């Protein structure tokens, strides 16, 4: 890793020995460092040279660490680790009001500082989870209506219930008996083959809107399963 690609850690600490200790350990762990001893110098530096993470002492000349953190959060979401010897401040440091990501208590192990920095940077650099696009199938239970890719489906009540049952659990195989139990609430006597007829009609209506999409698949000797995306209930 070239020096240019090494993460930059800004150390804001007014005690020279503590600052140098953190600098030595962080540089040994392949981090670049920059040291500031005053709180009122931090905002200007961050705006000019944004670091990857800030180790921010609580008690600083010029401007205290809590005030610095609040100022930074007005324009930046970079990770901030508060460093404090004031145990009574921990509850405030953990609160959302100042926007700190973590805290370290003095006296501390420099190895702990390096480990904490690694963990936070790894978490921040993790790629965001991909957001799945919304399903093209929308089922409106209140209006008893369904649509595929914005096109309305003209369904009977039995076909609507069948579609909703299958599409709510894609990949699950429903037996004909299970599907029949979802179709009628008046306990009428019907045969298993009634499902086959409804499935045939439902497939025809769906494929008329999208011929390339595998919607409902028969599983020999077992029943049917939904092959497309899960429905969006509204």
From TrEMBL:
Name of protein: Two-component system response regulator BaeR
GO biological process: positive regulation of DNA-templated transcription
Organism: Mixta theicola
Signal sequence extent: none
Main location: cytoplasm
Listed PROSITE patterns: OMPR_PHOB, RESPONSE_REGULATORY
Lineage: Bacteria, Pseudomonadati, Pseudomonadota, Gammaproteobacteria, Enterobacterales
Modified-residue entries (4-aspartylphosphate), positions: 57
InterPro entries: CheY-like_superfamily, OmpR/PhoB-type_DNA-bd, Sig_transdc_resp-reg_receiver, WalR-like, WH-like_DNA-bd_sf
Portion annotated as DNA-binding: 128-228
Cell compartment(s), UniProt: Cytoplasm
PANTHER family: REGULATOR OF RPOS, TRANSCRIPTIONAL REGULATORY PROTEIN BAER
């Amino acid at each position: 890793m070239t020096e240019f690609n090494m993460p930059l850690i800004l150390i804001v600490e007014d005690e020279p020995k503590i600052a140098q200790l953190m600098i030595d350990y962080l540089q040994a762990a392949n981090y670049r460092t920059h040291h500031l001893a005053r709180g009122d110098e931090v905002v200007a530096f961050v705006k000019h040279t944004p670091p990857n993470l800030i180790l921010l002492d609580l008690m600083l000349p010029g401007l205290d660490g809590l005030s610095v953190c609040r100022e930074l959060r007005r324009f930046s979401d970079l990770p901030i680790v508060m460093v404090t010897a004031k145990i009574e401040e921990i509850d405030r440091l953990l609160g959302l009001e100042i926007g700190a990501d973590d805290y370290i208590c003095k006296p501390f192990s420099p190895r702990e500082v390096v480990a904490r920095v690694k963990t936070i940077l790894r978490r921040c650099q993790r790629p965001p989870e991909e957001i799945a696009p919304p399903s093209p199938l929308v089922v409106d239970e209140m209006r008893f209506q369904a649509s595929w890719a914005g096109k309305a489906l003209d369904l009977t009540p039995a076909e609507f219930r069948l579609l909703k049952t299958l599409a709510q659990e894609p990949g699950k195989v429903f037996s004909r008996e299970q599907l029949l139990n979802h179709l009628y609430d008046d306990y009428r006597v019907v045969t298993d083959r009634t499902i086959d007829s409804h499935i045939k009609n439902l497939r025809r209506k769906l494929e008329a809107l999208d011929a390339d999409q595998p919607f409902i698949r028969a599983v020999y000797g077992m029943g049917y399963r939904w092959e497309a995306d899960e429905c969006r209930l509204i």
